[in-house]
Write a structure and sequence with these properties.
Strand content: 15-25%
Radius of gyration: 22 Å
Bound molecules: pyridoxal-5'-phosphate
Strand order of the largest sheet: 4-12-11-10-7-5-6
Helix content: 40-55%
Largest sheet: 7 strands, mixed
C-alpha cells in the first residue's frame, strides 16, 4: 500500500492512544516501516533518529542481531504457552537473571505485560499481604504529586497527575498524596496515617511523565528509612528508570535502596515485546502461602503473562548489557549529552530549564500555555529535520536508545535545538 492510502486508512480505522483524534487527521504523522539501530524509516524512506527510544523502551537499538536471533530461536520452540499451571525455560531463566540483577532482597518475579499492570500488581500484592498478616486496616497508599504509574484504574489511583484524575475520579480509589522530593511531608503523612498505610509508591530519582522532575539527592534513601520507621512497604516503580536509563541498571542503586516491591517493564525486552515484572521480597511472597482452601492465592494473571518470546527477548537484552558493556559505554555519552545540551539548547531564549539524569532529559520551555501547544510544534519541527521527539506538555523529552552513537547523539541535540528555535 502507498503512504497516502495507508494514512487515509489509518484515519478511517485506528484510534490512537493518548491522542486527540480530531487533530490527528491533520497531522500527517510518519508511518514507520522499518528501523535499524537508533534510526526509524518511514514508508517513504525518510530517516528519523529515535529520540525517545520508541516510548522510552528501546535499549540496544532496533533490529539488534542478538535479540532478533533469540526471538527467532524461541519461535522455533514455542511462541506462547500459559504460566497458569505450567512453566517454561525462558521464564525461569529470566526470573533468575532478574533476581541476580535486582537490588538485594527482591527474590521473586511475577510477570505481566505492561508497566501499568506491573504497578497494579504491586498495589494488589501490598494490599492483600497486609490483610493476610492480620492487619486489614492497612488499605491506603501514599503516592507523590505528579507521579505517573500507568493508565489502568489502580495505577491511575496511585498517580498524581490531576488531569488524568479529574477525568476518571469516580472510578478511582483515594490515595494519600504528598509533595515529591519532600521527606518531611512524607514523614508528616506517615505520622498521621501510618497505621492505615499499606505502601508508599515512588518513581525513584526521576518522575518521568511529570516532565523529568528530579528528586534531591538522598530523598529515596530518606523515603526508605521513613517506610521502615513506620512499618510500611516501599514500592519502587522502575518502569521508566530501569535498565540503564539513569546510568546504573536500576535507579535504586544510586542510593543503595532495596524496595519491598519493584516494578519493571519498558526496557526489559530492549523495546521489542510487551513484558513487565513485579519483583517481590521473599517475605511478601511467603505471606501468600497457605492451604488451598485458605484462598491466600494471589488472584492475578493474564493470558500472555510471561510470554516465552518476550522472555527470550529479555534474556538476550540483559546478556547484551554484559557483552556490549552497555553501562560502561554509556557514561561518556551521558557527559556528551550534558555538554551538547548546555552548548546548543540552554542558550535558547525559549528554554526555561534543562533537567537531565543519565539518558533521561526534559527540556522545559518557557511560558507554558496549553493552547499554544509549543511542545507539540517542536515535535513537528524536529520531525521535519529528521528526529522523533515527543513532548510532555511544554517539556521536550529526549530519551535515545542507550546504544546511540556519539555522532547521532550530537545530531539529535542539534536537531532539537533547531526545532525549538524554529517553533518558539
Ligand atoms: N510507570 C512509569 C514510571 C512510567 O513511566 C510508565 C509509562 O510511561 C508506566 C508506569 C506505565 O507503563 P506502560 O505504559 O507500559 O503501561
Amino acid at each position: 500500500m502507498e503512504t497516502a492510502e495507508l494514512a487515509a486508512l489509518d484515519r478511517e480505522v485506528l484510534w490512537h492512544p493518548f491522542t486527540q483524534q480530531l487533530g490527528w487527521s491533520e497531522e500527517a504523522a510518519p508511518i514507520i516501516a522499518r528501523a535499524e539501530g537508533a534510526t526509524l524509516f518511514d514508508t517513504d524512506g525518510n530517516a528519523y533518529i529515535d529520540g525517545v527510544s520508541s516510548l522510552w523502551c528501546n535499549v540496544h537499538g532496533h533490529r539488534h542481531p542478538a535479540i532478533d536471533a533469540a526471538i527467532r530461536a524461541q519461535l522455533d520452540r514455542v511462541a506462547h504457552t500459559t504460566m497458569l499451571g505450567l512453566s517454561h525455560p525462558p521464564a525461569i531463566e529470566l526470573a533468575r537473571r532478574l533476581r541476580d540483577l535486582a537490588p538485594a532482597g527482591l527474590t521473586r518475579v511475577f510477570y505481566s505485560d505492561s508497566g501499568s499492570t506491573a504497578v497494579e500488581i504491586a498495589v494488589k500484592m501490598a494490599f492483600q499481604w497486609w490483610a493476610q498478616r492480620g492487619e486489614p486496616a492497612r488499605t491506603r497508599f501514599v503516592c507523590l504529586e505528579n507521579a505517573y504509574h500507568g493508565d489502568t484504574l489502580g495505577s491511575v489511583s496511585v498517580g498524581g497527575i490531576d488531569l488524568f484524575h479529574s477525568r476518571y475520579r469516580p472510578l478511582l480509589f483515594d490515595a494519600l498524596r504528598v509533595a515529591a522530593g519532600d521527606a518531611e511531608a512524607l514523614e508528616r503523612t506517615l505520622a498521621r496515617h501510618g497505621a492505615e498505610v499499606a505502601a508508599v509508591i515512588v518513581e525513584p530519582l526521576v518522575q518521568g511523565a511529570a516532565g523529568m522532575l528530579l528528586q534531591p539527592p538522598g530523598y529515596l534513601r530518606a523515603v526508605r528509612e521513613l517506610c521502615d520507621r513506620h512499618g510500611v512497604l516501599l514500592i519502587c516503580d522502575e518502569v521508566a528508570t530501569g535498565f540503564g536509563r539513569t546510568g546504573r541498571m536500576f535507579a535504586c542503586e544510586h542510593e543503595q535502596v532495596s524496595p519491598d516491591l519493584m516494578c519493571v517493564a519498558k526496557g526489559l525486552t530492549g523495546g521489542y515485546l510487551p513484558l513487565a515484572a513485579t519483583l517481590a521480597t521473599e517475605a511478601i511472597h511467603d505471606g501468600f502461602l497457605g492451604a488451598h482452601a485458605d484462598y491466600r492465592t494471589f488472584f492475578h494473571g493474564h493470558t500472555y503473562t510471561g510470554n516465552p518470546l518476550a522472555c527470550a527477548a529479555a534474556l538476550a537484552t540483559l546478556e547484551l548489557f554484559d557483552s556490549e558493556r552497555t553501562l560502561e559505554m554509556l557514561q561518556p555519552k551521558i557527559v556528551l549529552l550534558e555538554r551538547e545540551l548546555a552548548a546548543r539548547v540552554a542558550p535558547l531564549e525559549a528554554v526555561a530549564e534543562i533537567r537531565q539524569r543519565g539518558f533521561m532529559v526534559g527540556i522545559e520551555l518557557a511560558g507554558f500555555d496549553p493552547a499554544l501547544r509549543t511542545g507539540h510544534r517542536v515535535t513537528l519541527a524536529a520531525r521535519r529535520r529528521g528526529a522523533i521527539v515527543r513532548p510532555l506538555g511544554d517539556v521536550v523529552v529526549l530519551m535515545p536508545p542507550l546504544s546511540i552513537a556519539p555522532e547521532q547523539l550530537r545530531r539529535l541535540v542539534e536537531i532539537t535545538a533547531g526545532a525549538i528555535a524554529q517553533a518558539t
